[in-house]
Amino acid sequence: MTESLSLYRTPTVFESFPALVAAESTRHGGVSPFPFTSLNVGINTDDLPEHVEENRRRFFSSLRIDPARVASSYQVHGDRILTVTNPGRFDGFDALITNRPDQFLTVTVADCTPILLYDSGQQAVAAIHAGWRGTVARIVEKTVRAMQAEFGTRPADCFAYVGTCIDECSFEVGPEVADQFGDADKRFDAGRQKYFINLKTANAAQLAAAGIPGHQIGVSPYSTVLHNQDYFSYRIENGKTGRMLALIGIRSPGTAR
User: Fold this and answer.
1) Domains in the chain and their CATH numbers?
2) What transmembrane ranges does the database entry give (predicted)?
3) CA 20 to CA 55: how far, in whole Å?
């Protein structure tokens, strides 16, 4: 993963594609005061709207993106997927897909897992929001299938990034949640009588099950909890915190870097 300024980090799995824009925002470089310090880009937070607007402007500007070309959705921890033909704000979708150049897809996170997909063959992209419910619903696999149906995507041509989220050692759950995960993605701590879930391995496994080669899957080395100085964590900050954006899109030939 490489870093540009302090506003965002870019996944190295995509670094050989100059026309592709992919990034995760951090919590640095914004104007929001505590407890949203400082680059809170979450629209549905208790931060002042003018702070969020300025933070989003800074983030998009740092990537040389026109905010009018951005698509987002109010996420509901489900498995609905929207094929984006025009940018804008939508409601009720946890995955966005498009094959339109200069349309940039975003998901909002603060512990849940963002997954970014790039189909290098058909020039299509996806941005996925996968909390534990979306992971259990196998939204990642469903998104790959949706791209196959919509764009003719071949999984072998895809590159994917499992983004920064809550880490396994911090994601403590009860048996009612743990029972919905396979043994490979959960651990029982006998001392604490609690289960711990690994959302990164669970979603990476879904990417592999969908047919994406393992060497084309990148996983963030960062944690919203262990690296809370750089990322927002809803859980560790007791719900009073900001949000990050994960973004992906393809620049048209005239605007490629």
Assistant:
1) 2-165+217-250 (3.60.140.10)
2) none
3) 22
- CA torsion 219-222-224-226 (nearest 10°) is 140
DSSP annotation of 174 reads -
Q: Are strands 81-83 and 95-98 parallel, antiparallel or unpaired?
A: parallel
Residue type, 94: D
Distance CA 211, CA 205 (A): 10
Strands, DSSP E only, in the chain?
Answer: 2-4, 8-10, 20-25, 70-74, 81-83, 88-91, 95-98, 104-109, 113-119, 124-130, 158-162, 172-173, 186-189, 194-197, 217-219, 244-250
Q: pTM of the full predicted structure?
A: 0.96
* Model confidence pLDDT, tens digit, residues 223-242: 999 999 999 999 999 999 99
Residue given tokens 């931060």 in the structure block: 47
The residue length of the chain stands at 257
Pair 26, 9: CB distance under 8 Å: yes
Other residues' Cβ atoms within 10 Å of the Cβ of residue 45 = 22
